[in-house]
Protein backbone atom coordinates (compact mmCIF):
# COMPACT_ATOMS: atom_id res chain seq x y z
CA UNK A 1 0.00 0.00 0.00
CA UNK A 2 1.26 3.46 -0.85
CA UNK A 3 1.69 5.88 2.04
CA UNK A 4 -0.83 8.27 0.51
CA UNK A 5 -3.47 5.54 0.91
CA UNK A 6 -2.74 4.87 4.58
CA UNK A 7 -5.05 5.81 7.40
CA UNK A 8 -3.21 7.26 10.41
CA UNK A 9 -3.79 4.18 12.52
CA UNK A 10 -2.55 1.92 9.72
CA UNK A 11 0.67 3.88 9.46
CA UNK A 12 1.16 3.78 13.24
CA UNK A 13 0.58 0.04 13.30
CA UNK A 14 2.97 -0.53 10.40
CA UNK A 15 5.62 1.71 11.92
CA UNK A 16 5.45 0.03 15.34
CA UNK A 17 5.48 -3.52 13.93
CA UNK A 18 8.46 -5.84 13.47
CA UNK A 19 8.69 -4.78 9.82
CA UNK A 20 11.94 -2.86 9.18
CA UNK A 21 10.13 -0.40 6.93
CA UNK A 22 8.68 2.13 7.16
CA UNK A 23 11.31 3.45 9.52
CA UNK A 24 13.05 6.61 10.59
CA UNK A 25 13.57 8.03 7.11
CA UNK A 26 9.94 7.82 6.06
CA UNK A 27 8.89 9.16 9.47
CA UNK A 28 11.21 12.16 9.09
CA UNK A 29 9.63 12.94 5.71
CA UNK A 30 6.19 12.59 7.29
CA UNK A 31 7.11 15.09 10.00
CA UNK A 32 8.28 17.53 7.32
CA UNK A 33 4.94 17.06 5.55
CA UNK A 34 3.08 17.80 8.78
CA UNK A 35 5.01 21.06 9.04
CA UNK A 36 3.84 21.90 5.54
CA UNK A 37 0.24 21.06 6.42
CA UNK A 38 0.25 23.29 9.48
CA UNK A 39 1.71 26.15 7.52
CA UNK A 40 -0.85 25.65 4.78
CA UNK A 41 -3.58 25.85 7.43
CA UNK A 42 -2.31 29.30 8.40
CA UNK A 43 -2.73 30.43 4.81
CA UNK A 44 -6.12 28.72 4.46
CA UNK A 45 -7.41 30.71 7.43
CA UNK A 46 -5.84 33.97 6.25
CA UNK A 47 -6.51 34.25 2.53
CA UNK A 48 -9.66 36.26 1.80
CA UNK A 49 -10.05 37.07 5.49
CA UNK A 50 -9.58 40.42 7.24
CA UNK A 51 -5.86 39.92 7.85
CA UNK A 52 -5.39 39.14 4.16
CA UNK A 53 -7.34 42.19 3.01
CA UNK A 54 -5.05 44.41 5.08
CA UNK A 55 -1.96 43.19 3.22
CA UNK A 56 -0.32 45.00 0.34
CA UNK A 57 -1.12 43.67 -3.12
CA UNK A 58 2.41 42.34 -3.37
CA UNK A 59 2.06 40.32 -0.16
CA UNK A 60 -1.39 39.08 -1.13
CA UNK A 61 0.04 37.67 -4.35
CA UNK A 62 3.00 36.23 -2.50
CA UNK A 63 0.79 34.51 0.06
CA UNK A 64 -1.34 32.90 -2.64
CA UNK A 65 1.84 31.71 -4.33
CA UNK A 66 3.29 30.37 -1.08
CA UNK A 67 0.11 28.47 -0.31
CA UNK A 68 0.55 26.64 -3.61
CA UNK A 69 4.17 26.02 -2.66
CA UNK A 70 2.96 24.48 0.60
CA UNK A 71 0.84 21.99 -1.29
CA UNK A 72 3.78 21.07 -3.54
CA UNK A 73 5.99 20.62 -0.48
CA UNK A 74 3.43 18.33 1.15
CA UNK A 75 3.16 16.23 -2.02
CA UNK A 76 6.96 16.03 -2.24
CA UNK A 77 7.17 14.86 1.36
CA UNK A 78 4.76 12.00 0.66
CA UNK A 79 6.93 11.05 -2.31
CA UNK A 80 10.04 11.22 -0.10
CA UNK A 81 8.36 8.81 2.31
CA UNK A 82 7.93 6.32 -0.53
CA UNK A 83 11.41 6.93 -1.86
CA UNK A 84 13.00 6.26 1.51
CA UNK A 85 11.11 3.01 1.96
CA UNK A 86 12.02 1.88 -1.56
CA UNK A 87 15.69 2.75 -1.12
CA UNK A 88 15.88 0.95 2.20
CA UNK A 89 14.22 -2.20 0.86
CA UNK A 90 16.47 -2.24 -2.19
CA UNK A 91 19.51 -1.90 0.04
CA UNK A 92 18.35 -4.78 2.23
CA UNK A 93 17.84 -6.93 -0.86
CA UNK A 94 21.50 -6.43 -1.75
CA UNK A 95 22.51 -8.40 1.33
CA UNK A 96 20.67 -11.39 -0.13
CA UNK A 97 22.73 -11.38 -3.32
CA UNK A 98 24.95 -14.43 -3.84
CA UNK A 99 28.66 -14.16 -3.00
CA UNK A 100 30.03 -17.56 -3.92
CA UNK A 101 32.26 -16.47 -6.79
CA UNK A 102 34.57 -13.50 -7.23
CA UNK A 103 32.26 -12.10 -9.90
CA UNK A 104 29.28 -12.38 -7.56
CA UNK A 105 31.23 -10.76 -4.75
CA UNK A 106 32.23 -7.82 -6.94
CA UNK A 107 28.66 -7.39 -8.16
CA UNK A 108 27.29 -7.57 -4.63
CA UNK A 109 29.82 -5.04 -3.37
CA UNK A 110 29.01 -2.62 -6.19
CA UNK A 111 25.28 -2.98 -5.67
CA UNK A 112 25.67 -2.41 -1.93
CA UNK A 113 27.62 0.77 -2.57
CA UNK A 114 25.09 2.06 -5.11
CA UNK A 115 22.05 1.29 -2.98
CA UNK A 116 23.69 2.70 0.15
CA UNK A 117 24.30 5.90 -1.76
CA UNK A 118 20.63 6.02 -2.77
CA UNK A 119 19.57 5.40 0.83
CA UNK A 120 21.85 8.22 1.94
CA UNK A 121 20.70 10.65 -0.75
CA UNK A 122 16.98 10.30 -0.08
CA UNK A 123 17.00 11.84 3.45
CA UNK A 124 19.57 14.39 2.30
CA UNK A 125 17.05 15.61 -0.28
CA UNK A 126 14.48 15.93 2.51
CA UNK A 127 16.90 18.17 4.42
CA UNK A 128 17.51 20.37 1.41
CA UNK A 129 13.79 20.81 0.76
CA UNK A 130 13.12 21.57 4.43
CA UNK A 131 15.73 24.32 4.53
CA UNK A 132 14.12 26.03 1.55
CA UNK A 133 10.68 25.75 3.17
CA UNK A 134 11.66 27.82 6.22
CA UNK A 135 11.17 31.02 4.22
CA UNK A 136 7.59 29.97 3.59
CA UNK A 137 6.94 29.47 7.30
CA UNK A 138 8.60 32.77 8.15
CA UNK A 139 6.26 34.60 5.79
CA UNK A 140 3.23 32.89 7.35
CA UNK A 141 4.49 33.86 10.80
CA UNK A 142 4.87 37.50 9.84
CA UNK A 143 1.83 38.01 7.60
CA UNK A 144 -0.58 35.19 8.40
CA UNK A 145 -3.56 35.28 10.74
CA UNK A 146 -2.00 36.10 14.11
CA UNK A 147 -4.50 33.81 15.86
CA UNK A 148 -2.55 30.99 14.22
CA UNK A 149 0.98 32.20 14.91
CA UNK A 150 1.52 29.33 17.36
CA UNK A 151 0.74 26.88 14.53
CA UNK A 152 3.38 28.52 12.37
CA UNK A 153 5.79 28.14 15.29
CA UNK A 154 4.95 24.46 15.61
CA UNK A 155 5.54 24.10 11.87
CA UNK A 156 9.05 25.51 12.32
CA UNK A 157 9.73 23.16 15.24
CA UNK A 158 8.52 20.17 13.25
CA UNK A 159 10.59 21.19 10.25
CA UNK A 160 13.73 21.29 12.38
CA UNK A 161 12.86 17.89 13.84
CA UNK A 162 12.54 16.58 10.29
CA UNK A 163 15.98 17.98 9.41
CA UNK A 164 17.60 16.48 12.53
CA UNK A 165 15.92 13.13 11.92
CA UNK A 166 16.84 13.06 8.25
CA UNK A 167 20.47 13.86 9.02
CA UNK A 168 20.65 10.85 11.34
CA UNK A 169 19.54 8.72 8.39
CA UNK A 170 22.08 10.37 6.11
CA UNK A 171 24.84 9.64 8.62
CA UNK A 172 23.99 5.98 9.13
CA UNK A 173 24.36 5.36 5.40
CA UNK A 174 27.21 7.78 4.76
CA UNK A 175 29.24 5.96 7.40
CA UNK A 176 29.45 3.00 5.03
CA UNK A 177 30.78 5.26 2.27
CA UNK A 178 33.77 6.73 4.07
CA UNK A 179 36.16 5.83 1.28
CA UNK A 180 34.16 7.67 -1.37
CA UNK A 181 35.29 11.04 -2.74
CA UNK A 182 32.02 12.74 -1.82
CA UNK A 183 32.17 11.76 1.88
CA UNK A 184 33.67 15.00 3.18
CA UNK A 185 31.47 17.10 0.94
CA UNK A 186 28.28 15.47 2.19
CA UNK A 187 29.45 15.64 5.80
CA UNK A 188 30.14 19.36 5.44
CA UNK A 189 26.75 19.92 3.85
CA UNK A 190 25.01 18.05 6.67
CA UNK A 191 26.64 20.22 9.32
CA UNK A 192 25.77 23.35 7.38
CA UNK A 193 22.14 22.29 6.93
CA UNK A 194 21.75 21.45 10.60
CA UNK A 195 23.18 24.76 11.76
CA UNK A 196 21.09 26.70 9.27
CA UNK A 197 17.98 24.84 10.38
CA UNK A 198 18.63 25.64 14.04
CA UNK A 199 19.06 29.32 13.26
CA UNK A 200 15.97 29.57 11.07
CA UNK A 201 13.82 27.68 13.57
CA UNK A 202 14.91 29.95 16.42
CA UNK A 203 14.30 33.08 14.33
CA UNK A 204 10.73 32.00 13.60
CA UNK A 205 10.05 30.96 17.19
CA UNK A 206 11.34 34.32 18.38
CA UNK A 207 8.86 36.09 16.11
CA UNK A 208 6.04 33.87 17.37
CA UNK A 209 6.97 34.21 21.04
CA UNK A 210 7.34 37.96 20.83
CA UNK A 211 3.82 38.22 19.51
CA UNK A 212 2.38 35.71 22.02
CA UNK A 213 3.96 37.44 25.02
CA UNK A 214 3.56 41.06 23.93
Percent of sequence in beta strands: under 5%
User: Count of DSSP helices?
Assistant: 7
Radius of gyration: 20 Å
Number of strands: 0
Low-confidence stretches: none
Structural class label: mainly alpha
Q: How far apart are the termini?
A: 48 Å
- H/E element string? HHHHHHH
- Describe the largest sheet: none
Large-scale geometry:
elongated
Mean pLDDT: 95
Helix content: over 70%
Protein name: Cyclodeaminase/cyclohydrolase family protein
Domain Cyclodeaminase/cyclohydrolase: 8-191
InterPro entries: Cyclodeamin/CycHdrlase, Formintransfe-cycloase-like_sf
Pfam family, one: FTCD_C
Could you characterize the architecture of this molecule?
The protein has 214 residues and is mainly α. Helices cover 79% and strands 0% of the residues. The chain is built from 7 helices and no strands. The chain has helices at residues 8-15, 24-44, 50-53, 57-94, 102-143, 149-174, 183-212. α2 (24-44) runs antiparallel to α6 (149-174). It is elongated, with a radius of gyration of 20 Å.
Write a concise keyword list for the protein shown above:
mainly alpha; Cyclodeaminase/cyclohydrolase family protein; Cyclodeamin/CycHdrlase
